[in-house]
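lol ok so funny story. i was supposed to be doing the assay writeup but got distracted and ended up predicting the structure for this chain instead. priorities right. anyway since i did it might as well share w the group, maybe its usefull for someone
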Amino acid sequence: MSISVMVIDDEWPALDQMKRLLLQCEGVSSVLTYDNPREALAAASELKPDVLFLDIQMPELSGLTFAEKLLPVSPDTDIVFVTAYRNYAVEAFDLSAMDYLLKPVDPSRLLKTWNKLLSKRLSPAAAGAAGATGATGAAGRTTAFRLLGDYELTSPQGLVKWRTHKAQELFAYLWIHRQGSVSVILNDVFPQWNYEKGKQYLHTTVYQIRTTLKKAALEDKIELTFGRENYRLESREIEGDIEKFQEAAALAMQNSQLEELQKACALYTGDLLQSLDSLWVYSARDKYRRLYLKLLEQLTLGLVQAARPHEAEDYAVRLTELEPLEESYALRLIAIYYETAKPLRAQRKFTQFSESYIAETGDALPDWFVDEYRRLGK
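and the output, tada:
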C-alpha cells in the first residue's frame, strides 16, 4: 500500500516533527508540508492526498474552514486535526471521521491514529478478497439499515463507511423523518452554527452522503433530493430495522399471539441510535422505546395468564430495567417471583425498589404499593 500524506501547519518546528514521525509509518510514500494554508488548499484540491494532517488554528484560513472547502472536491482524503486546543474537538469530529491529535504530538498516539487509518484503507480490499474467495460473494449480501442499538448500513459491498460523524447522523435523521426543510434540519442537526455557515455545512454534508452512497453502490436504492429549500429521502428495497420492528409490533399486539409478541420483542435490539447524544434523537428514541414497553407489558401479562410465569420473568425483568421507578413493573416482577417460589428474590426486589424510589423522589413508598406487596407475600 502506498499512501500520500500532506501536513499543514503555520509553525515549521511542528511541520518538521510530523514529517519525521510520518516517514517512519508503514505505507507512507510521500509527505508534503505547507506552512501557508491557502497554498496548501490549492495543492490539496489538485493532488487529493490520501491523508491530511491539519492544524486548526492558523492565520487567514483556519483548519476547520480548510476542511470544509476541501471535502467537497477531495471526499476520499482522510483528515486528522492537530492542535494545542482541546476545545475544538467537537467541531473537528463533525468535519472528519478520523482522529484528533493534541500538540505536542506523542509518537505512540500518532501510531494509534496511523493504524486506524491503515485499517480503514485496508478494509475495502479485504472485503473484496472475501467476496471473491468466500462462499457468499457481494451479490449474496443484503442491503439493510440498522438503527436500533448499533448504527449500521450494509450494502452489496459490505458495511458502509461514513466519511464524517455528521454525515452519518444526518443520514439517520433523514431516514427517520424522510424529509425536512433546511431551517428545521439546521435547528435539529446543526444547532451550533449560524444560519449561513450552517447552511453551507449542511450542503457539504449532503454531498458527503451522496458520495458515500455512490461508492457503496446504493444510489439506485436511496435517493436524496433537494427542492424548495427542502431535502427529501426516498428508499427502495431497503430493510430498515425500525420499520420491521414497528410493523411486527403493531401486528403482534393486535393479534395478541404470544409467539408473535416474542418475535416482535426480539427485533428490538437496543434503544434507537443509543450512542448518539443529540437533542433531536430523544423524541424519536422515546417513540420506539415506548412501543417496546407496550410489547413487553402485553407479553408479560399474556405469559402469566397462560400459566407460563418462568418465561414471563425474563420480560418482567426487562421492564424494570427500562423503567426502574415504575411501580406497576416492580409489583409485576415481585408477583412473578412469589408465583415461581422465589420469595427471597421478591423481598430483595422490594428492598431495592424502595431504596431507589426514596433516593430519586425523596418520598417514602406509597401506602398502596406497600399494601399490595404485603398481600402478594401472604
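The two ends are 73 Å apart (CA to CA). Residues 107-133 form the longest helix (27 residues).
back to the writeup now i swear
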